Amino acid sequence: MATAEDEKLYAFFYETVVLAYVGYKTTRKERKSGTRNDWKLAIAASTAAYHFREHLPDQYRKSHKAMVAICQDFALLGDVVNAVKHRRLTKGTPQIASADSIRELVVNTQYRDEVGEYSDATKSIEITLKNGTTRELFDVLTNVVNMWINFLQASGFSEKATRFSHEDRNQIVSREDAGEMDLVITQGVAGELGFKLQKYNYEKGFPEPVDLTGREISFTAYDPRSMKTEVAME
């Protein structure tokens, strides 16, 4: 039977880690970008998940090294949290160099069906590692949150929490479910918008980046109230 301390710990985990994770998971599905809301919620959830170790009772607390042995993404999540806090990482052997290695992107994926080509826009926060590979922060965060759920259950604290499934972005999005992304920019405030263009490879079963070498890219912004074009960039 769970003790009062067990229930208190689970309540803390649910209120600080699980709810923060679900909040970011919900926001990343919204078709609106440009205010760094995804970034703020993702970092808040990452910080809560990474520092939860410090709230474990002494008899259950494990070292950072021990947690990495259980889940290697715990180390990468720590690098993300520390990079955002300190800007650059100069101590130890971090997998990323600085906060600049973490970018919020609008991902536009091109598909085709019997009618023709169409596209779908989603959001992603990507981490570029020192070795040149990239990871999606949501995937890393999901692994760490699930690690904590497994840890709590194995330690006898709670059977209440259930593991979260990873979202499969290799699945084909139908024309009916596809949509555009609304971009919000505040007048007088510098905006930082990252874009990634990819095309679904039906033979391989996953999207691939589009080579934009030598191509001209245009971007148009307008006031939705008047449909008047305000900015045009190439």
Give keywords.
single chain; about 230 residues; alpha/beta; 5-stranded mixed sheet; two-stranded parallel ribbon; 5 helices; 9 strands; globular; disordered C terminus
Describe this structure in words.
With 234 residues, this protein is α/β, with parallel strands linked by helices. The protein has one domain. It is 33% helix and 23% strand. It contains five helices and nine strands. The protein has helices at 4-27, 37-51, 64-70, 73-86, 137-154; strands at 32-33, 102-112, 117-128, 134-136, 182-183, 194-201, 206-209, 219-223, 228-233. It has a five-stranded mixed β-sheet. Helix 2 runs parallel beside helix 5 (137-154) and helix 4 (73-86) crosses helix 5. The termini are far apart. Residues 229-234 have low confidence and may be disordered.
- The tally of helices reads 5
Helices and strands, in N-to-C order? HEHHHEEEHEEEEE
Number of domains: 1
Residues in β-strands, percent? 15-25%
Radius of gyration: 20 Å
Global mean pLDDT: 89
- As residue ranges, the low-confidence spans are 229-234
Give the CA-CA distance, first to last residue: 64 Å
- What portion of residues is helical? 25-40%
User: Based on DSSP secondary structure assignment, what is the total number of beta strands?
Assistant: 9
Walk across the major sheet and give the strand order.
4-3-2-6-7
Shape: globular
